[in-house]
Amino acid sequence: MITSFKEYEIDDRPSRIDIDQVHAWLTTSYWSPGITLERVRRAFKNTALVVGVYRGSTQVGVLRVISDKTTFAWIADVWVDEGARGQGIARAMVRFAQGHPDYQGLRRWVLATQDAQGVYRECGFELVENPERWMIFRPEPSL
User: What CATH architecture is 2-133?
Assistant: First the structure.
């Protein structure tokens, strides 16, 4: 599925993802500093939906969805290149994913963010009412 957003193209074809660029972005993120290229490759290979945003042939954004395509979807690794920020690209990627035909009728979508709650609120997300119900297991705490 491909759609236009301003001068950008939003595309869900995994073959178009510039995995080296995605790795360069993610290795500097607060949620996966220093992540290896191999781990990024594996993560994207095993992801239900990968969304890329492009200006011409240059990738400027990425988002991935981990899902069973029936009840639940987790949005992860949302990144917009610094030079393309502030134009609504992250919101456009989230809405693209939410509108994707393979993900209709899900019971819930979730994500985690340190600093972009406002962006996601505009896409219908809200803070978790009972955060004490959520737990995390980290087999490799340093990762």
Answer: 3-Layer(aba) Sandwich (3.40)
